[in-house]
Amino acid sequence: MPPAEDESAALTVGADHDSNDAARKHLDEVFSLAYEELRRLAASVRRSDASASVSATTLVNEAWVRLAATPAVAHTSPLHFRRIAARAMRQVLVDLARRRHAVKRGGPDAVFVTLDHDIVADTGAELLSLDGALETLAALSPRQAQMIECRFFGGLDVAETAEVLAVSEATVLRDWRAARAWLAAELQASR
Amino acid sequence: MTRDGEPDVAGGPAARERWSRLQQAFHETLTVSADARDASISAHAQGDALFAAQLHAMLAADAGPDTLIDRGLAVAARDVMSDDAGTLPALRQVGPWRLLRLIGQGGMASVYLAERADLGSTAAVKLLHHAWLSPARRERFSAEQRTLARLNHPCIAHLYDAGSADDGTPWIAMEYVEGESLTAYANRASLTIAARLQCMRLVCEAVQHAHANLVVHRDLKPSNVLVTAAGQVKLLDFGIAKQLELATDDAARTRTGMQLMTPAYAAPEQLRGELTGIYTDVYALGVILYELLTGQLPFDLAGRSAASAEALVSAGTAERPSVVARREGRERGLGATAWAELDVICQTAMHSDRARRYRTVDALLRDLDHFSRSEPLQARPDSTVYRASRFARRHRTPLLASAAALMLLVALSTVYTLRVRDARDTAVTEAARAQQIQRFTLSLFDGTEDSGEPGDSLRAVTLIERGVREAATLGREPVVQAELFQTLGGTFQKLGRLERADSLLQQSLRARRAIGSRHPDVARSLVALGLLRVEQARLPEGEQLVREGLALATATRPAGHRDIATATSALGRVLEERAAYADAITVMREALRLHVALDPRSVDVAAAATQLGNDYFYAGEYAAADSQFAFSLDVARGLYGDRHPLVADALINRGAVQFQRGEYVAAERLDRDGMAIVERVYGPDDPRTASALTMLGRALVAQSRFDEAVPLVQRALTIRERVYGPVSPKVASTLNELGTMALRQKHFDAADSCFARNIEIYRAVYKGPHNLLGTAMSNRASVASARGDNVAAERQLREALVVFAQTLPPEHLDIGIVRVKLGRSLLRQRRFAEGERESAAGLKILLAQTSPATSFVTNARADLAIMYDSLGESAKAAAVRGR
Fold first, then answer.
1. In the predicted model, is pLDDT for residue B522 greater than 80?
2. Exposed, middle or buried: residue B39 (CB in 10 Å: 0-12, 13-18, 19+)?
3. Which residues contact B768 (CB under 8 A, 6 or more apart)?
4. Which H helix or E strand runs over B421?
5. Can you spell out the DSSP letters for B439-497?
6. Cross-chain Cβ contact A152/B257 below 8 Å
7. Phi then psi for B64, rounded to 5 degrees?
8. Using CA atoms in the order B116, B119, B123, B126, what is the torsion angle rounded to 10 degrees?
9. Is the pLDDT at B708 greater than 80, yes or no?
10. Sheet containing B121-128: which strands, arranged edge to edge?
11. What is the rounded CA–CA span in Å between residue A97 and residue B76?
12. For B856, phi and psi rounded to 5 degrees?
């Protein structure tokens, strides 16, 4: 089974209990939420507010509490919801990086671009590389790709990741180390 | 599924197996000492150079420098979001607007100065950041556009245009305001305190306009209030404004979504992520005022975490503006007493307990005005607002209580305004009077606290009774006393306490006559008392009083004066109640003309148009009625936006026209819209709510939805019996609906008793013929007819016709209907010749209507056909059938 199918199922969880509209609305909510979460994180780093960036998924947790009563989410566990949010965060972030890249490179009329090219270019390009490498990893080992998504994009800790993926914590630590090393090597190579 | 020899595609079994080996090698190599690593790598690679290289790279990366993954998500987010404009597509033109330069940037959007080549005009064009990423932001951006569209005020930057760019980025074009922030302007221009307060006044008016349109700004701060070079104040940025009726899930949204407001001006409840409302804006206005007065913010939130900021603001212990001003040498020539009053205004607006703030921006405005005119404030430390709010909170019916208190305040301030407008030559006396009335209002709330009495004693009526006692002691000020008696009487009348209203209005009249029997104020008292008589269903007395008042006003006031217009409207009202609709129409057309001449878009115009519409309606001229109601709706919306009692009235009236035309679904929709407004404004136990309930019930009944209708109308009956007593036309009209429902459900006894009681009520009230009496008789006949008692039906219908003959023009629809019904009751008694006369006459009347009542037309034709057949007139029968 291609891993992508698993992912899309995760994103539309609860949709089978609902009309398409409700599922669509739910997806909209998750993506809006991911976007706001990323903004909040970005702002916390800018302010050097360490406590805020440690709890990387404050908004997601709050949203879960709020959405738990809705039909679209009623059958989803809090952890699973965070897993869905992690996926949305990845997509939003990568989309941001891609657009930014396009504006920087492609826009001959990019009159409004007044930013620090160096830092931004690095992270944006790295994000796109990471996204590509994650796709490759997903083909090799879906579980490890999901693990990166959970931990990096979703802010899940080791125990939570183990629970979501239904493996032991030792397995998470072991898989994580190998996957991280491989991804890091890929990112280095793509520079 | 992979066959041998298939290339090693990514994700194929071979690739997976290779990844598995690579990880195995990685983990094993990690366990060996550094100098044994190369050997381990070679052993695992087994001559596969690529494998060896990959393993090597992984091991290096494992020990190597931080990557994106290690730096963390927050850093990545910061980097790709570091500059919002940077991620904007390279737009140079949106719609007709050419973007010139960036003039501002916020979390949500960037604002550009733009120009329209074809018109040469400029605008501020706002582009939404990251529009493609967040549906919630797109929704909010379009909410801002809708908000701006409904606001139209000289002190609010208004909307020109909106749309989406080619790439989907939504944009809004607004009035471009070039100016500096309110505080910067005030400081640069070294404004006096009076000038600062005048600026504040304009800001309050703009915010009040937004509130009247059910929009809460939620991000008020000096940088959102610009002052142009010409000194014009403009309120900007409704980006996080909220529309009040959408407030349902807003608490959650405010918290999780978007803490976008500016903490320095945010109310404690906003910092806590709780529900926001008018009180939130009142708070922010308080902070702005504080800053304008002192040059400083009340709280220093710099470097504080959200939690500690919230704690500080909630504690609400800002230094008093007077203290700061004294320390900073910014007293600007104002004395200690004046500064103490400014302290009170700031503290009241900025109270950390929102129930103790000014309830409305209007209230804040009034106190700013009081201050400017050196009058006593409405806010006192620990008095009015506090007590009024305690009062409201302690009881289960907060709306009723506070609405009554508010009504009184509004009534009194109206008195004040009217008086000043009317009597410029006695301005000095008037100012003294106004001040007394203010003090008086304040005194109403004194001593209400902790008396240990049962809750009921604190109800609104008690407050007003206390007012009456206070007013009684003002014997040395008879003019003020009479004014107060009329105001208090009017308040009682609005609360449905007609007897108390009666005694107060009489006292007012007596007091004024004692001053001078030909004074215009006497006319006002006469008219007020006359209208009360009308409400008490004592029509002849009412008419006499109103006519007397109108005559006196006409004699003592210049032509076209407001008092004359008001008295003319009152006369129209009396004539309407007397069912003299043709006369009422003539009078009300004059009243409407007078009001329009005074102010073409005023509340009086809306009310007069409604009244005229009612008269047309009762006269059966539905098209004319509907056009008056539509005019009234338009004026009311222009004045108050979509959610005002006058708007509700107009909606319900238009519903009544639709109902009369048989458009029941349309009627129901209009009634529901009106009902929602009325119940929200007046609460569940108010007579006006009862009216709206009745109208809606009727539209449901007409659609045979009895189960929905009956409880609504029962509720209306209970309210009205309590308010008006059991013998009142208003109770009767409710009984009429209940009777109609019972009849439709074939509950004949219940229906009969409703209509019988109605006949009694109308006889007792009108003491003579009245078309409503005829209607009740006709309806009772329908019950008899449905039971098969055609003799009783005939008798009752003939009684009804006698009444109608005395009260309605001969071609009136109701007469047509009664004659058709009479024809049928005669047919059923096999009295064909008599029946034919009635049905034919009835049908003729029905067909003359612009919109004939179809079921009666059908019935009449069917009945006529049978009767012609029975009379042997087959040609006529065929003619009736053939049509």
1. yes
2. exposed
3. none
4. helix B398-422
5. HHHHHHHTT-SS----GGGGSHHHHHHHHHHHHHT-TT-HHHHHHHHHHHHHHHHHTT-
6. no
7. -80, -165
8. -40
9. yes
10. B93-94, B97-105, B109-116, B121-128, B170-174, B159-164
11. 10
12. -70, -35
Q: How far is CA B425 from each of CA B59, B375, B598, rounded to the nearest angstrom? A: 97, 20, 20
Give me the count of residues in chain B: 883
pLDDT digits (tens, 9 = 90+) for B793-819: 999 999 999 999 988 888 888 899 899
- Which whole number is the average pLDDT over B194-216? 86
Q: What is the pLDDT of residues B746-793, one digit of tens each?
A: 899 999 999 999 999 989 888 888 888 998 999 999 999 999 899 999
Residue B417 CA: distances (Å) to CA of B75, B424, B440, B508: 61, 11, 16, 19
What is the DSSP secondary-structure string of A87-140?
HHHHHHHHHHHHHHHHHHHH-TT-TT--S-HHHHHHHHHHHHHHHHHHHHHHHH
- Decide which of B625 and B237 is more confident: B625
Rounded CA separation B345/A165 (Å): 60
- A103: nearest CB among B81, B90, B92: B90
Q: From the CA of B219, how many Å to the nearest CA of chain A?
A: 19
Distance between CA atoms of residues B12 and B9, nearest Å: 5
Percent of chain B with pLDDT over 70: 82
* Dihedral (CA of A18, A19, A20, A21) sign: negative
Please give the Cα distance from A135 to A126 (Å, whole number). Answer: 14
Instruction: Please name which of A161, A87, B563 lies closest in space to residue B571, comparing C-alpha atoms.
Output: B563
Q: Interior CA angle at B237 toward B235 and B243, to 5°?
A: 100
For the stretch B221-236, pLDDT in tens is: 888 898 988 888 998 8
Q: Do residues B441 and B475 lie in contact, with contact meaning Cβ atoms separated by under 8 Å?
A: no
User: What ipTM describes this predicted complex?
Assistant: 0.79
Q: Quick check: B504 and B468 in contact, CB under 8 A?
A: yes
Q: How far apart are CA B434 and CA B439, in angstroms?
A: 9
| Rounded distance between C-alpha atoms, residue B375 and residue B316, angstroms | 27
**CB contact (8 A) between residue A103 and residue B86:** yes
Closest CA to B668 of B630, B694, B696: B696
pTM: 0.44
- Nearest of B659, B668, B599 to residue B635 by alpha carbon: B599
Per residue in B49-82, pLDDT (tens digit) is: 889 998 999 998 888 777 888 888 888 888 777 6
Of the CA atoms within 13 Å of residue B720, those in its CB half-sphere come to: 25
CB B861 within 8 A of CB B880: yes
* Three-class secondary structure of residue B779 per DSSP: helix
Specify the amino acid at residue B607.
Answer: A
3-state per-residue secondary structure call for B179-236? EEEHHHHHHHCCCCHHHHHHHHHHHHHHHHHHHHCCEECCCCCHHHEEEECCCCEEEC
Taking contacts as CB-CB distances below 8 angstroms, the residues of chain B near A180 are: 61-62, 69
Residues B103, B112: Cα–Cα separation, whole Å: 5
Q: What is the per-residue pLDDT for A67?
A: 56
**Shortest CA distance from A24: residue in chain B:** B135
Interface test with A, best of B22, B87, B108 (most A CBs within 10 A): B87
Helix, strand or coil, per DSSP, at residue B271: helix
Q: Which residues pair with B112 in a beta bridge?
A: B102, B125
Contact: A62, B255; criterion CB under 8 Å: yes
Does the beta carbon of A51 lie under 8 angstroms from any beta carbon of chain B?
Answer: yes
Q: What tokens were used for B498?
A: 């007609």
Nearest Cα residue in chain A from B79: A120
Window 116-155 of A, Cβ < 8 Å to B: 116, 119-120, 122-124, 126-127, 130, 136, 139-141, 148, 152-153, 155
